[in-house]
Amino acid sequence: MDKQKPVEFTVANRTVIRILLIMVATFLGIRFLLNVSHVLSLIFFAFFLSMALNPAVAWISRHLRIKSRAGATGVAYIVVLTLIISLFSVIIPPLVSQTSDFVTSLPQTIRSVNNQDSAVGRLVKKYQLQDSVDKIASDMSGRLKNLPEPVLSSAGKIGSTLTSTIAVLVLTFMMIVEGPMWLTRFWALQPKSRREHGQKLAMRMYGVITGYVNGQVLIAFIAASFALIAMLIASNIFGVSINAVGLAGIIALTGLIPMIGNTLGAVIVVLVCALSSLPLAIVMAIFFLLYQQIENVTIQPYIQSKKNELTPLLVFIAAMLGIGIGGLLGAFVAIPLAGCIRILLNDYYKMRVAQNA
User: Which phi-psi region, left, alpha or beta, contains residue 151 (left: φ > 0; alpha: ψ -120 to 50)?
Assistant: First the structure.
C-alpha cells in the first residue's frame, strides 16, 4: 500500500498578522463597550424619554404658540419638575420624621415588651424570654449607634444616581430640541424608493412608544386612585392620621414601572403605615395583594396590549425578560421594544412574501 503523504498547510505571515489584529481589535472593542456600557444605557434611556415626551412638547408648542422648540421643551421640563418636586416635598419630610422617631424608639419599645400585660408580654414571661428580649434591644441600640456609617456610604451611591439623572435630563432635552433636524438629515440621505416606507415604519414604532407611555401613566393613575381611596377609608376606620395623598403619589411614581412597580410602591406604603398603625398596615397589605392580582391579569395586559398591538401573554413575557436583563430600566423599555420588534418582523415577513409572489 502506498503511504499517504502528509498534508502541509502554509499560512502566510500576512494572514497571521491579520488574525492577531482582529483578535486584538475584538478584545479592545469588548473592553470599550464594557467601560461605556453605563453611558450607553443613559443615552438609550434619554433617547426613549425624548420620544415619549415629544408629544407633550408638540402639544405645548401648538397650544401656547411657542415657535421655539427649545422654549416648548423648557416649559414641559418646568411643569414635570415642578410636579415631581412638589410631590417629594409632600412625601419626604413626614416620611423621614416618622422613620427617625420609629428607629429611635425601637429599642425601648422592645424592652417594654417584658413589662406589658399583653399577649406578647405574657408569652415572653411564660417561656422566660426576658433575657433574650433585653439582648435584642441592646444589640439594636448598638447597631443604631453605628447607623451613620452605612448612611455615609450610601451617600456616594445617591450622588452617583443624581449625576446620572441630571445627565439623562440634559441628554433628553438636547435630543428633543435637535431631534427634528437630525431626522430631516437622516431621511435626506435615504434613497427615495425606501424613504416613504421607512418613514411610515418609524412612525408606527414611534406610536408604539408614545402609546406605551400614555398607557403606563393611565395604569399608574388608576392604581394611585384606588390606593388613595383605600387609605382614606382604612385610616378613618382605625382613627390614624397618615399622609394619604403623598403615599398615593409614591404609588403613582412606582406604577410607571410595569408589572413590579406597584409591588415596590406597596412595600413602601405598607412600611410607612406600620410606623403609625400595625392594623392599618395589615389592611393595606391585603388591599395591595388583591389589587395587584387583579391588575396583573386585567388592567395591565389589557391596556398595554391595546397600545402596543401585543397579546397579554407577550406583554407579560416582555416585561419579565426586561426585568431579568436590565432590571428596572429593562422593565421600563421592554414592552415598547417588543412592540417595535413585532412591527419590524411583520414588515420583514410581508416584504419577503411580496418578493416571492
Answer: alpha
Contacts of residue 259, Cβ cutoff 8 Å, sequence gap at least 6: 296, 300, 316, 319, 320, 323, 331
Place of cell 441600640: 141
227-277: pLDDT as tens digits: 999 999 998 998 888 878 878 888 888 887 776 777 888 888 888 888 778
Contact 251, 265 (CB under 8 A): yes
Length of the chain equals 357
Contact between 266 and 259 under an 8 Å Cβ cutoff? The reply is no
Whole-number Å distance between alpha carbons of 28 and 38: 17
51-56 own/partner pairs: CB under 8 Å, 24+ apart: 51/206, 51/209, 51/210, 52/209, 52/210, 52/213, 53/172, 53/176, 54/176, 54/179, 54/210, 55/210
CA pair distance 30, 41, nearest whole angstrom: 16
Burial (0-12, 13-18, 19+ Cβ within 10 Å), 98: middle
d(CA 351, CA 347): 6
* CA pair distance 333, 316, nearest whole angstrom: 13
Residue with cell 449607634: 145
Exposed / middle / buried, residue 245 (Cβ in 10 Å: 0-12, 13-18, 19+): middle
- The pTM of this model reads 0.65
* Grid coordinates given for 30: 469588548
- Distance separating alpha carbons of residues 74 and 53, to the nearest angstrom: 12
Contact 23, 46 (CB under 8 A): no
303, exposed or middle or buried, with CB in 10 Å at 0-12, 13-18, 19+?
A: buried
Q: State the maximum Cα–Cα separation within the chain, in Å, rounded to a whole number.
A: 104
